[in-house]
Give the backbone structure.
Amino acid sequence: MLWETVRLALLSVRRNALRSFLTLLGIVIGVAAVIAMITIGSGTTEKVRGDISKLGSNLLVVRAARPDRSGSTSFTPKQLDDRDVAALANGLTNAKAVAAAAQKQVRVVYGAQNVAAEVTGTEPDFFIARDWNIALGRAFTESEVRGGTSVCVIGETVRSQFFGTGDPIGQAIRVNRSSCKVIGVLEAKGTSGFGMDQDNVVMMPLAGFQRRVAGNRDVGSIYVAAADGVPTSVVQDDIETILRDTRRIAPGADDNFEIRDMTQIADAMASATTTMTGMLGAVAGVSLLVGGIGIMNIMLVSVTERTREIGIRLAIGAHERHILVQFLVEATVLSLLGGLIGIALGLSLAGAASAALSIPFAPSAAVILLAVGFSALIGMVFGFFPALRGARLDPIEALRHE
């Protein structure tokens, strides 16, 4: 019985192919928009998390606090120094790496070529804290850091600019005005979530950087990686306690340093993109309601056109429920066809957008199933009133209809 009803519904759809297509177009556009928006949004969220994770897992970055522009700063600004680094390195028991770093944008030269790159002076633990592996050669050692040896590790962008795919190990480049021997090449990380090329870098031992490039003993940042299984919030509390003591900050006074938890930043940015995805999906979902109204409208027209057919069926013994089920199935079939076409179209649009925007293609099976179920539900809900109207026709009046 049900299969026969479905067959009749499909015949009705085929009999009025153009009208049926225009009817389900609203459902197609609605489902496609919802699928595309949510898939693109999920891919964006994954990209944000991936870009933040490139900075290092369970990473905390300590910097000196800057005064407010309004001039209402309630603390005395103070640059980070070696004592802060030593205090954290010796006092933190839940950290797997603590590394000081200072950066400066300078001109790097090799032969007749030059490039503006970010030069970072740091320590071996920096590579552990940032989850940054050496692709070729080696990192500098603790003895090279203490001695300020003129060696460096370059990023993939610098290597490509100067050496192409060749081996740069042992070659000398000029950083600012000082010669530096290349001992390693960093693993490529690509562009960060903030749009910066992370591979356009040169890493040097901190002491050598301070002496030859920066010209001072300042420490710009301290990178702290929490030990595996230890929440970053625990390590952050420990950092605050140690630095307040080391920097002699009075009880109740504001910190003259700031701590950035990259895990929290990643969660906040992912939460923001998820919220935006939900809002865009909801806006796109409005078109599904418009499509449902279109189905109701066309089913009312169909009932009017087929009044005589309904009268004949009722006269030869069909029950009201048979007429009701027939029109409900027709509306549901129309809506489901629109949903399936919309899913294919939505995934195609999301795939094209993912390729164009260089974000992961992240379709959700749950969202696809929900779209199919919702499109069928729309067909049943908006098809119920026309179906009920057809089922309650008086057979005598229906047979008189021309």
User: Anything to note?
Assistant: Strands lie at 59-64, 95-110, 113-122, 134-137, 151-154, 172-175, 178-186, 201-205, 221-226, 257-261. The first strand starts at residue 59 and ends at 64.
